[in-house]
């Protein structure tokens, strides 16, 4: 922004906490010059049959037919018809035999209710079973509230050489070093690892596990036939880590768990207020709930003195950071204006989406960002800082901020609540964007990539 234009800027565009103000500004409706990657574009798949080929098997593009080699056979129409009929018969027999023999096993160290990655595992298991295959989920720890999860120890005696073992990777785990010794086809699905720098000086244990995970991600690359990133951001990370074969398939969403009425108590508490700003995600340094609190201080001072901030997400894993956020709230005089909802059930989460006036994200690191799509699904406008995979998930369906300017974040959140035309346009764009991640389409892409 030119100096003279900056000088004419309204006073209310100053940050409420001056010592934390950012020097640079960007227009609140700035968007990327080029649209982010479309999940519907062409992607690499492994050829079908009895699961994945061995490592270094050739890939096929979905829009290309396999090249024909040698002399054409069956030039006589009747002969060609018989050959095609026999080929279909043989294909069906092979498919029936493969379906009876191949099983699909999924592993992640921890599976928990309400967790986006865990929901992905369960949704994929449901689809695979629907396709006629046996499929199971395994974990070192299954949190209370999840069902039908097996102990990871069973993998060592239950996985057969023709089976498919899918390892969901988002943290370092010594168990993975043992799982890659199991003779089976192996695929890694990468949900991303939060860089250890975010935990520096806050949670040394989390920082150590993040470093372990990043080292392990590269070390185990030769053990996997394919690396799948749930975003292009994640796929590039796999390629940089040394995975020879990579592709991108978004997270498989299952909207059925929201087929419940919204929680009446939550609606009664929050519905109808002028400004209810919502963020959904575990309390963690990379998600920057501290900056959301600073943004709220500006919002209440300059826009709406009654504005409320609702933070949905568990905070037990990051007690030190949670304590810092609580201390910041008290220091800024925001007691009573910030609500920690913790982990909530689906009915309450749905009610928060229904009652809020804007979904606001200042997260600096997301491997995908399922709550962004949930907000769009439930007609809640999104204002988000364009970092990591957030831009490619939101697309052109939200207000993407190119700089972490807290004042402009607040102004953008206020505009989507006050300007009816803007709000309606964002809601319509959000509903259209969610269709790009239609569960049936993503499931079919997943099936093609896995070759089952």
Low-confidence stretches: 1-37, 40-75, 80-97
| Oligomer type | single chain
- What is the average per-residue confidence, as pLDDT, rounded to a whole number? 84
Rg calculated over all Cα atoms: 24 Å
Instruction: Provide the number of structural domains.
Output: 2
Structural class: alpha/beta
- CATH H-level superfamily title of the largest domain: Glycogen Phosphorylase B
Overall spatial form: globular
Number of helices: 16
Strand content: 15-25%
- Terminal-residue CA separation: 54 Å
- Mind telling me which CATH architecture of the largest domain this is? 3-Layer(aba) Sandwich
CATH topology-level fold name of the largest domain: Rossmann fold
**Given this structure, which CATH class of the largest domain is correct?**
Alpha Beta
Describe the fold and architecture.
This protein folds into two domains: 13-34 and 257-435, Rossmann fold, CATH 3.40.50; 44-61 and 80-248, Rossmann fold, CATH 3.40.50. The strands form four sheets. A seven-stranded parallel sheet has the order 7-5-3-8-9-10-11, sandwiched between helices. A six-stranded parallel sheet has the order 14-13-12-15-16-17, with helices on both faces. By secondary structure, the chain is of the alpha/beta class. Helix 10 (319-331) links the parallel strand 13 (308-312) and strand 14. Helix content is 39%, strand content 15%. The longest helix is centred in the first third of the chain and has 25 residues, at 77-101. The N and C termini lie far apart (54 Å). Mean pLDDT is 84; it is low at 1-37, 40-75 and 80-97. The chain is built from 16 helices and 17 strands. It has helices spanning 3-7, 77-101, 116-130, 155-158, 174-179, 204-219, 232-240, 264-270, 289-302, 319-331, 346-355, 370-377, 390-394, 406-418, 420-435, 439-450, and strands spanning 44-46, 59-61, 103-107, 110-111, 134-139, 141-142, 149-151, 164-169, 185-190, 226-229, 246-248, 276-280, 308-312, 338-342, 358-361, 382-385, 399-401. Helix 9 crosses helix 14 (406-418), helix 12 crosses helix 15 and helix 14 (406-418) packs across helix 15 (420-435).
């Amino acid at each position: 922004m030119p100096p003279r234009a900056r000088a004419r800027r309204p006073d209310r565009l100053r940050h409420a906490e001056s010592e934390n103000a950012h020097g640079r500004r960007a227009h609140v409706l700035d968007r990327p010059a080029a649209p982010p990657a479309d999940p519907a574009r062409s992607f690499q798949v492994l050829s079908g049959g009895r699961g994945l080929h061995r490592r270094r098997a050739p890939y096929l593009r979905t829009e290309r037919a396999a090249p024909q080699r040698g002399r054409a056979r069956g030039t006589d129409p009747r002969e060609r018809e018989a050959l095609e009929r026999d080929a279909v018969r043989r294909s069906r027999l092979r498919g029936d035999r493969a379906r009876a023999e191949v099983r699909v096993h999924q592993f992640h160290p921890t599976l928990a209710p309400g967790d986006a990655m865990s929901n992905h595992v369960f949704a994929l298991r449901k689809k695979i079973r629907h396709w006629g295959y046996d499929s199971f989920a395994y974990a070192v720890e299954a949190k209370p509230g999840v069902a039908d999860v097996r102990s990871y120890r069973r993998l060592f005696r239950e996985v057969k050489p023709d089976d498919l073992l899918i390892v969901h990777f988002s943290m370092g785990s010594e168990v993975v070093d043992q799982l890659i010794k199991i003779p089976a086809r192996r695929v890694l699905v990468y949900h991303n690892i939060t860089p250890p720098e975010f935990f520096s000086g806050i949670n040394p244990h989390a920082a150590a596990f993040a470093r372990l995970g990043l080292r392990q991600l590269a070390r185990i690359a030769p053990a996997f036939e394919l690396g799948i990133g749930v975003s292009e951001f994640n796929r590039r990370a796999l390629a940089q880590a040394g995975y020879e074969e990579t592709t991108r398939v978004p997270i498989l969403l299952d909207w059925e768990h929201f087929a419940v009425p919204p929680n009446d108590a939550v609606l009664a508490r929050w519905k109808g207020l002028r400004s209810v700003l919502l963020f959904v995600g575990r309390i963690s340094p990379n998600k920057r709930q501290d900056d959301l609190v600073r943004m709220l201080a500006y919002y209440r001072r300059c826009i709406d003195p009654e504005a409320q901030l609702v933070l949905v997400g568990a905070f037990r894993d990051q007690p030190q950071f949670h304590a810092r956020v609580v201390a910041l709230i008290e220091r800024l005089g925001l007691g009573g204006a910030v609500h920690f909802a913790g982990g909530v059930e689906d009915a309450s989460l749905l009610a928060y989406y229904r009652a809020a006036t804007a979904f606001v994200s200042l997260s600096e690191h997301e491997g995908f960002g399922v709550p962004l799509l949930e907000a769009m699904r439930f007609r809640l406008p999104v204002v988000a800082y364009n970092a990591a995979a957030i831009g490619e998930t939101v697309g052109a369906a939200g207000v993407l901020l190119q700089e972490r300017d807290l004042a402009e974040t607040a102004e953008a959140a206020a505009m989507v609540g006050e300007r009816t035309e803007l709000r309606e346009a964002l809601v319509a764009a959000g509903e259209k964007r969610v269709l790009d991640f239609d569960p049936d389409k993503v499931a079919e892409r997943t099936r093609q990539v896995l070759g089952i």
